[in-house]
Protein: Carbohydrate esterase
Organism: Rhypophila decipiens
Amino acid sequence: MKLSLLLAAAGLVAIGEAQQKLKVMFLGDSITEITCWRPQVWTQLQAANLTGSIQLVGSMNSIGGSCQKPAGFDARHEGHSGYQAYDVARNNIAGWVRSTQPDVVNFMLGTNDVNIGKRNQQAILDAYTSILNSLRAANANVSVIIDKMIPTSWSDATIEGVNTQIPGWAAKYTTAQSPITVADCSRAAGMTNNMLQGDKVHPNSQGDAFIAKQIGPVLIKALNAKLGRA
Ligand SMILES: *[C@@H]1O[C@H](CO)[C@@H](O)[C@H](O)[C@H]1NC(C)=O
Ligand SMILES: *[C@@H]1O[C@H](CO)[C@@H](O)[C@H](O)[C@H]1NC(C)=O
């Protein structure tokens, strides 16, 4: 009797702890999937004492082969090479978040809409709005971090234009219940051609460090706010 009560109590504690973990999703394309900034953000989360309070979610579980992985690194994510925001909005995001219900989502999307889809600024911004609606349908309290896209080496005008509009987009849709903040990975914030690979679109190791430096503090702030920490 005593033992079973103890076991029941232990089970309740375990359930309570599991429920308290915030579910965090990194959503994007190859710049999220195959590059090395995610483990660097993880290191920042460790330093901020947040890794015990979160669980990464997503249908993917991978990291670029050359990346340094900190101990305990959680490699789950929702980065898909070649995917466009336009298609993610229509075909993928509702299903991805229905099963994972993230509390915090960081996303960088749109580069393939430009390079592959030849879409315009408004189509990309509309896709962001549609993605946001799906995130909120799965979890009305979701905190969203939208990343300004990293530049291409030729400073693509559509990417730069969307980046200019992202703060206004975030201000238009942010709410107290589901706040939206911006992580600035753009050329204007300091990402240079020296931080890109020879393919002109993916970050090299310097670019990974830059992206992590831009996203990490914004994510830490969003997590601390959710956890009620100052
Ligand atoms: C670190 O976070 C844990 C929760 O995961 C908490 O119990 C602990 O007090 C925190 N430590 C510090 C130094 O803030
Ligand atoms: C959202 O947060 C409110 C309290 O702030 C809570 O009552 C509600 O259950 C939450 N909804 C979801 C879907 O987590």
Observations:
- Strands lie at 22-28, 54-57, 60-61, 76-79, 104-108, 143-148, 180-184.
